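the four lines:
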Amino acid sequence: MRRMTARPANAHQARLLKLLRDGGPNSRAQLGDQVDLSRSKLAVEVDRLLETGLVVADGLAASRGGRRSHNVRLNPDLRFLGVDIGATSVDVAVTNAELEILGHLNQPLDVREGPVAVFEQVLSMAAKLRATGLAEGFDGAGIGVPGPVRFPEGVPVAPPIMPGWDGFPVREALSQELGCPVMVDNDVNLMAMGEQHAGVARTVADYLCVKIGTGIGCGIVVGGHVYRGTTGSAGDIGHIQAVPDGRPCACGNRGCLEAHFSGAALARDAVEAAQQGLSPELAVRLETHGALTAADVAAAAAAGDATCLDLIREGGTRTGQVIAGLVSFFNPGLVVIGGGVTGLGHTLLAAIRTQVYRQSLPLATGNLPIVLGELGPTAGVIGGARLISDHLFSPA
Amino acid sequence: MRRMTARPANAHQARLLKLLRDGGPNSRAQLGDQVDLSRSKLAVEVDRLLETGLVVADGLAASRGGRRSHNVRLNPDLRFLGVDIGATSVDVAVTNAELEILGHLNQPLDVREGPVAVFEQVLSMAAKLRATGLAEGFDGAGIGVPGPVRFPEGVPVAPPIMPGWDGFPVREALSQELGCPVMVDNDVNLMAMGEQHAGVARTVADYLCVKIGTGIGCGIVVGGHVYRGTTGSAGDIGHIQAVPDGRPCACGNRGCLEAHFSGAALARDAVEAAQQGLSPELAVRLETHGALTAADVAAAAAAGDATCLDLIREGGTRTGQVIAGLVSFFNPGLVVIGGGVTGLGHTLLAAIRTQVYRQSLPLATGNLPIVLGELGPTAGVIGGARLISDHLFSPA
DNA sequence: AGACTTCTTCCACTCTCAGGACAAAGAGCG
DNA sequence: CGCTCTTTGTCCTGAGAGTGGAAGAAGTCT
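prediction for all of em together
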């Protein structure tokens, strides 16, 4: 199939495309209820969208008491690629234009191997998905990388954990390889967009999305839009000081949140605890696997290991301290916790909640839900699809 | 004179009004260079604005090489009132439609005397300004209060330092008394708007404005607009924990920034230092005035008093710690320090800068100016005028 | 079967707006 | 002073956007 290259010609068409993306197949009449255009105008714009091929007819809608309406929907052959490059693994998924995941692959992969190796992997995963018949090509791709990005150009800038990526033209390179438009963003922002599109944050305009993985980051959504900051490093909360004169951090300071709690820090703590004989559970796991990860701590904690529970609680408290400050500052309507360590689940969440509700003022916390992300590993890839669809469904 | 009640009829007119407000008298041709409208369309809209009386003809412009253009400007009889209610004093100023201050009064006043007493004072100050012939009435007023505000209604919500104000319909009451439209906001947000309109922040879209007065607050500007948070308490950074297990704070927690550094805390520290004989300079002042304020500390520090310099430095360091966290999180393009304690000047600024540049990541601080506000006590009242003019110069 | 709803199409009419033509008013130059 | 060139303001026409009414098509419900 030839790929779509059409773009909406005006704001009305863009609006309609987004309604169809978020609401699925819809009748003209239903669309009319949502957009405040005259019937005639609406018909004209829908017809033009049909001409472009972005939208296709989709049979008859159920009657709402009178004549049945003709449904329209986004072209079911449209395909977006969502790519979430993490520090230690990569997710690649194919979605349709309604951002439903049609196929999803996950592979361990060290981002430090550099852009060339990573792209090779990503492209081969994309090819594999294509080979299953899910897609003949892609109409757009949204990529997340674990570091700050100069958003308009889609280029990582000074990413601490991605040696070799600084200044690499990710957007341009992948656009060439995939032959479709590409947008690049921070992985945390992608997760925030994903949870906003299909997860817990569907109804709030201002919220924070804290991702605790190998590192810690925070997606900031203001008025429904991701806020990226002046240089694209907004939300980089891993290096906020959580413990005065605390542990040394890779960044050169001491007491950074990330040094005290993150996937990496937790793994270190777990090994230490195992070696000191504080946790027989962990010691066994260390023996068998040769290494420990956050998942081991989660499993041990689930089995009732006191040391692991303590580790989680202390990490949650540290994280809660930092989040409490952010809540006072930003006064969000929701805080979402996500990322690799969500396996730690409600023990972690409870510790964070306790600390935030204790430290922030009642006016800010009064009606503030703090919840786990709903989408898990799919948040990032859905966010990627959302990112590129927002771009493509805007007037050129 | 009868007060103006006209409002722009569409977005084009609103745009033109704001250009005239920010750029002063302007020729039609110059306006045309800025708004991307055809000459005919522009002429129509300008004519309509002239009809409403919001805009008046203003003679001929200088030639730009051809026929001279007819200037237009905002009606010079328009008057806005800017009111900045602080914890211990109130500022009232009259501006024209270009937000130039025509008259300014300042009086000490304890906000805890309650809304009725404070409004009496404010209204009498406004009357005094009117009596000087600066204004025959007001076309709008912008009010700042030292606490969180439910912005759409203009009502303070649970303000910690304003007993008796909770839920008081400030906007409605003052609108009645003044007989003109009124908008109410947090005093810190007003300062942020003032510095953005006429101060150091004219050219940045995303910045933070930290006001250190009796308390500490932070104005947040995202994309040129003040961000107020879900419940209107965004920027309330005074109760972020700066010192673990630090001093007890009025809010019930320990170690809040405000408990360690603010106008109030500094005064307490100064009295203590004087009584312990650590600072002869302060002791003398305490003797003569019976009390000490931040201004005394500033004066003593300027005279070289080591204890005072230390107090300021330590306070700056605490503040810098918190700001460093906010900078990492928000990645602003500028940080402005203002409020009553700016008298402490560059000693304070240096301490804050040192701490921020040390603790935040280079990507966020790389090109981050941290500067003192330019407008001093006029920032708030200019911000007030700006607030109401933004409202009135928007389509109804 | 008939009355009522809902949806779609068609059409006439209004409004907006851009851009060209032209006149008015100035600058610069010889 | 006269000429040319530039800039500004005004007028006009035509294209396109958009509204709302009317009528027909396709349902439901009694």
